[in-house]
Amino acid sequence: SSGINAEYGGQIGVHSTSYKNFLPYVLTKERMSTSMVVIVLSLEKPWTLDDELFYWTSLLEEHIKSLEIDEREMARLRQNVVDLFCSYKTPEQKEEEKKREEDEEVVLPMAEGALVTNLGVPVIIVLSKVDCMSTLQKENDFS
Hints:
Layout: H1 23-26, E1 37-42, H2 49-66, H3 71-86, H4 91-100, E2 123-128, H5 132-140
Parallel strand pairs: 1-2
């Protein structure tokens, strides 16, 4: 097994940093406009979150730069991320709109400090092993 799930356009589903070499096969210049990056971090050792997040986002930024996407296309990709971010609605908001039969799309303003680094691809950070927090709090007085 290569470590890449090609059925879903390519995903790297492992913790090992040795799999960073698969990134060029998963996130290509051609796939940038239809891709989303999900970074999964474990709360098993929460003191490593900053370093792990910095590692993976830096790796992603470096990879995207290596794709040598022209400035106009990169600006378009970044604007797509902004539009996606600003037009996000929770499932409850979507349900309310259906009840009121509103056709007008509401675009929220960008919060200050949001998308300071826009890589041109949506990035979602997921925390796993959240159940470890209660054990850490009880056994190690970690908060």
